[in-house]
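Researcher: Checking consistency across runs. Here is Ammonium transporter AmtB-like domain-containing protein again:
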Amino acid sequence: MASLSCSASDLAPLFSSNTANATAVANYLCTRFDTIANKLSDTTYAIDNTYLLFSAYLVFAMQLGFAMLCADLSFHIGFGLVTAGPAQLDFAGSGVVHMVGGIAGLWGAFIEGPRVGRFDQADRSVVLRGHSASLVVLGSFLLWFGWYGFNPGSFLTIAKRYGDGGSYYGQWSAIGRTAVTTTLAGCTSALTTLFSKRLLVGHWNVLDVCNGLLAGFAAITSGCSVVEPWAAIICGFVASWVLIGCNKLAEKLKYDDPLEAAQLHGGCGAWGVLFTGLFATTSYVNEVYPGQLGRPYGLFMGGGGKLLAAQIVQILVESRWVTATMGLLFYLLNKMKLLRVSRDDEVAGMDMTRHGGFAYAYHDEDDQSIKHAYMMRKIEPNIETPPANLSLPSVDV
């Protein structure tokens, strides 16, 4: 791009000849013009920061999808070659979906650092409450409904009979059982989290129920089609304590994850992968994965440790893969200053500084006490005020 320039010698003759300080005025205007031109030529200044952050989100989303796809394919192909046959079980993706996303979130939150005010000067944890518990509950119910498409919907067919079971037993039965195990694990985890947090902190919290519900769903996703309903209750109970324990550990390590992505999806997803290696039943495994005789099943169901070993290998392989891909991506985005808004934006709230108004205050335009402090304003170069004794002359046209 051609550079913009201003010449005081060319500008001065445009002013009236009777103006004593025409040269000074021309020099001042050219200095200001050059300052603005230099700023506009700087692409890091010219591109709006909001656009950069949204671009970083798009890059992250595409890279995460790539990481999930490659983690699933590479693990199945590589481990199948090592063991001379399929061994690992992750029916709907506790590992390849939830754990992969949780580990990606772990690196993102770790590299970005805690939110402003999350820990005080004595390094004590400060609870930053969300802005709308109602929306959290609504979102949790929507996810609950969607999980029935996620887990039972992972079957490719419905009208398929199993063996000699006649018309009363087939894939439709497995789909129904999958819906039951999903419900039991989620509800057990939700109730366990509710009462456990009541004993630990001394009060009830609906947000704990929502997170506990999703923790149970994330954990049961791996083995939802190959475990008994009673085992799903165990899965949900343990998932609740995995979530609580991971949150306690995160607080000790001064790790700030506002949505508990690493704790909920990463920790509970890993538990779900291990749970399948412990409780998968041989009859359900053979039904869901037909034509693969000798496929291992759960340790506690008499299947030995082969499946559990495969599940552990899956956790290790996927963890290292996501660390190598998403950890590097977040590091580069952070170095490019694309990962986080400024401290002023964070304190004021991006609804005001980037989006032009309060998100939840009605008639906020009438509240003058808070309007001026955080009103969105255009970012411009810091132009100095002209000297008081410098008069701007008229221009001859």
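Researcher: Does this match what you'd expect to see?
Model: One thing to look at in this run: The two ends are 31 Å apart (CA to CA).
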